[in-house]
TrEMBL record:
This is DUF1836 domain-containing protein. It holds the Pfam family DUF1836. InterPro entries: DNA-bd_dom_put_sf, DUF1836. SUPFAM superfamilies: Putative DNA-binding domain (SSF46955). Coiled coil: none annotated.
Amino acid sequence: MTIDTKDMLNSILASISRIDYIKPEEIPGIDLYMDQVTTFMENHLSASKRHTDDKILTKTMINNYAKNDLLPPPVKKKYTKEHLLMLTFIYYFKNILSINDIQVLLGPLTEKYFNKDGELSLTDIYNEIMHLEIKQIDPLTKDIVRKYKMACDSYENAEEENQDFLKKFAFICMLSFDVYVKKQVIEKLIDDMAEPKK
């Protein structure tokens, strides 16, 4: 490929450094109206957009999430800190999971921890998840670089003018296979969660 390994690593690190999440302490201490919610989410997650004109969340999306029981309804048209935490989970899940799968996954979270007083709050759960995910950045970066190097070593016998495309294609296929396998595992776990206990 035309990008050398060091440039690719720097590109990956730059991309990963743009992965952002909303820290609970950044959420205002007051409940927000819909326009304030969309503005807040846009301001805090805009670095994760693929295209500048993409929308993080729209009013229609939020209304649909509430209508489909992914998000508890607002109270007097206002959204709490917990609503914003749930919207953040939904934002990340919606790119890889169906609405039904997200319902199965978030239903128990809402039922047991949304606006509940218990040993764990929704904020505690959210913080733990974000902590676990941040710890995955270094291993994921190393895995991507390893796959990149494998792709660079492929198609050495192909015609020179086709090598660049074929190596990039191999790299994309390896990354896609990784996502495919993990998505299969996620769906199996969700299916197990959805099955009634005997």
